[in-house]
Design a protein that fits this description.
Number of helices: 1
Distance between the termini: 40 Å
Largest sheet: 4 strands, antiparallel
Radius of gyration: 21 Å
Number of domains: 2
Strand order of the largest sheet: 1-2-7-6
Shape: elongated
Number of strands: 7
Helix content: under 10%
CATH class of the largest domain: Mainly Beta
CATH architecture of the largest domain: Sandwich
Strand content: 35-45%
Structural class: mainly beta
Length: 136
């Protein structure tokens, strides 16, 4: 018996890339920094990342090939300091989120050590498309 996967099912044409994206995303999950994803409107989402200790100039947000990439790198100012305990993470990070077609980043803001990234899903104008049959 042959196992059908998402990319090889005969009714799901062109979804083979989706299967690869899901596999790649599952392998890259690391847990830092922690984040929330919430739906804020019918067509709006918000990702909130806990980035305590990072300034706005130490964070970058880009969209690369339909991937939202958030990077953080703190300046190393601990050379003169002696820590008796260091429980606040001060490491660089890269967190990626795959964006579906039609989802765009609307903006970002920082508040109380939380980075908010707002996204909006474009509502298609036309739901039904009629295909004309050409004579050969």
């Amino acid at each position: 018996m042959t196992k059908l996967t998402l990319g090889t099912h005969p009714y799901l044409l062109g979804f083979d890339q989706l299967e690869r994206l899901v596999e790649r995303t599952a392998k890259s999950e690391n847990g830092y920094p922690p984040y929330n994803i919430e739906q804020v409107r019918d067509n709006g989402f918000r990702i909130t990342l806990a980035v305590a200790g990072f300034g706005e100039d130490e964070l970058s947000i880009t969209v690369e090939n339909r991937q939202l990439v958030v990077r953080g790198k703190q300046a190393d100012d601990g050379a003169d300091r002696v820590f008796l305990h260091r429980g606040i993470a001060a490491r660089q990070f890269q967190r990626t989120f795959l964006l579906a077609d039609g989802v765009d980043v609307a903006g970002a803001s920082m508040e109380n050590g939380l980075l908010h990234i707002d996204m909006a899903r474009a509502v298609p104008d036309q739901v039904v498309q009629t295909i004309r049959i050409n004579k050969t």
